[in-house]
Structure formats: structure tokens, C-alpha cells
Structure of Cadherin domain-containing protein:
Amino acid sequence: MKSEHYIYVVVQGRSAEGSVIISSRRVIRVLVADVNDNAPHFLQSRYQLEVEENNQPGKLLLRVSASDADSGYNSRVTYSLDKHTSTIFNIGPETGQLSVSAVLDREQQGVHTLTVFARDSGSPPLESVATVSIRVLDQNDNAPAFLTPHFIFFIHENVPPFAQVGRVGVTDPDEGENGNTELHVVNSSGPFVVDNTKGTLHTTNNLDRETDDHYELYLLASDHGHPFTLTSAARVTIFVEDINDNQPKVILPSSNSSCQTVSPATIAGTLVTKIYAIDEDLGLNSEITYTVVAPESAQNSSPFRLDSRSGNITVAQQLLQKDLGMHHMFIVVRDGGKPAPLYTTIWVNLLVNESMGPCNLDRVPTWTGTSDLDQTPSKAPICEVEDTRSAQLTLLVGLGMMLVSTCLLMVTIVLYLKQKRKSLQQNRGGHVEENEIPLRLKDKYYSDD
């Protein structure tokens, strides 16, 4: 409060006679010796400042100041930082100037909090503390970054428009508008668009794998930074997965009215014709099998056999006289699609004839069985062909056989009645001779063997 004091002392005296003696004056100077009883005092206990990132190394940040009411060495103040402070920050021990020796990166650390000590030189020394808070301001120094440089998605064909293909993750570590990104589809003629609110890729039209089985496109991500925007790109591959949406197409035979002549001399195992079909689908959806629609009994009696995998039709056994004529095979061509296969049908018409001339059909055969042709072959109904002449011939043959059977039955009955009547007459008028011994019939006879 006050380092020295002055005391004035005046001495006055009187003589014996009572006269006044002139006074004497002295000054006593009292110096108050200092002890270290005051710690340094900061002008403010908390400092706040803002610094843009990407600063020049060695940049001066601010100057802190603390005073000490003591004197001499007791008032001499030095500054230091907490021992846990990052080494990139430095403070002048005498000046209190705070600086940073490295480039600050807001994306690594946005706020730095430092503790500054001010200590005097007394014995023992006294100190005080102040806090410095440094907020690092953002710059647009980071381009948008995709989670991967190449996105791969799979989507079924025939999905409805605006179906989601997948999520395209993109991030920008900058702040505010510097980190606000926007996506665009570029270098693509495919039906795709980006939903920026969700960061997802969507279709705009139906997809058909048989037309395009995959798409290649690029996504461009740009931020809204200042003074200029930053961009980045990512590649996207979209594979269109197959669904069973195509029926098998029969190439051979060319039509249901096609006909082929087979010689009766053809030996068993000979290939006489072939069914060839294709399916535009993929995998199991395109695996084709061929089946004759008839019960096993009818298939076993047919002179022709169909290979379910290759579509080859061969002679199953040596052709006989009964095999002459037209043979109609109603064949279902199925794919292996799940959960239900798709199918188409074809007639294979084979004429067994001595003459190898052209084979012509008066009309296309007609299927008269059930329309449920996607069931298993063993349960499929027998196929019938509408042929008026063959139906009439079958009816006449049946009637003739019934008439012959009736005649044979009547003749058998008449002969039996006549034989029984004759036996009865002999039993009534006959007698046993004197020397004849009736023969007793045994129930069973056994040979010597």
C-alpha cells in the first residue's frame, strides 16, 4: 500500500531565564521492507479467441499479462503453460505472448483449451492461473468423400419405378455450408436418380435384364463451400438380377402343324427329330425340360421316346405294323423357375409310313385335356387329338367286336344245354350189367412220381 514513510521530529527548549530557544528539526525516513505476500494477478481470468485453420506456423495468438503488487523480485512475473498442453503451443516466459508452431486443423480438433500460469520470483513463489480458449474456424479445405470409390448394387428386374437401389454414403468433414454436399448422376443414360435428402439411389423406370443386365454410371458430390466448391466422384455398377418373366420359346419344330415322315424300317435308338427351345432368362429360370403330356402307360406303349433334357426324339423300339400311321406327341416345354415354372407347348407330329413322301396335316391337333400343365408329368392327363375319321373307325371296330363276342356267347350256351340234355336221357334209360363193377372216383390222384 505504501512502501516508505517520513516522520518529522521537532525539538523545542526554554532557557533558565525563560527565553525561548530556537527549535531543532529532524526527518526520519521509514522504509517498509517487502515480503512476498501477493500472488500475480491476471487482467482477466479467461481469454477467448478465434483462429482460422491452416494458419502459418509460428502465428502469434495473443498476449497475456499479469501484475504483482509486491516489489523487487517478489513482483517479477514469468509465464508458463500446463505440462499437459500440446507442444505446438508456446508462451514467452517474460512477455506472455502465446503462439502456435504448427498448422491448426479444425477437422482434427475444433477447440483448444490452455492453462497459463503466472509465477513471481519470491521465496516461496506465488502463482495464479488463467484459461485460454482457442476456437479454430473452418475453411473449405476438404472435398466430399464417398465411403468407397466403387459402389456395387444388385436389384431385381421389373421392380416398380422409384424403387431404392441402394445407399451411397458421402461425407464432408467441413462445417456449415462447407460440409453441405449435393449428389448428381453423371455420365449415365440409365434410369436412375439420387435422393439427396436420404443419400439413396432410385430407379425412374422399370428395369429389364433381358434388355440391359447391368448399368455403369458415376456420381458427382459437390459441397457449397466458399470461396469455391470442392467435388469428388465415385463409380457405380448396378447389376440387374433375373426373375422368371420369360416363357421358353420353341425354335424347332417351327409350328404345331409341322410333320415328319418316319420309315417303318428305322431301327430302335435312331434320332428322328428334335425339339429345340430357348429361354431368355438366366440360371435356373432358363433351364429347360421337355415332357410328353401322357400317363406312363401311354408313354411306355408309344414307339417314340423323348429325352427330357436334350429334346431328342428317338425310336424306342422296332416299329411294327400296328405303329403305322400318324403319331401326335403333345409336349410341354418348362423352365426351372421358382416358385412356379413358366411353360409353353408344342405338337410333334410323326407319320410312320412306307412312303417317305411329304407329310401333311389336314388340321392342327387340338389339346382337349386340362389346362393345368405345370403339374408333374406323372399326374398329367392323357392327351387326345380330335380326328373325325379315326374316331369313326374306332367306333365301328368296337361295335364289331361286341357283336362277335355276343355270337360266341350264344353258341356256347346252346352247346352246353344240348350236352346236358343228352346226359340226362342216358341216366334214365341205362342199366348195370351183371359182371360190371362200378368205378368209384377218387377225389385226388397222384402219379408215381
User: Anything to note?
Assistant: The longest strand covers residues 20-31. Confidence is low (pLDDT under 50) at residues 376-391, 430-449.
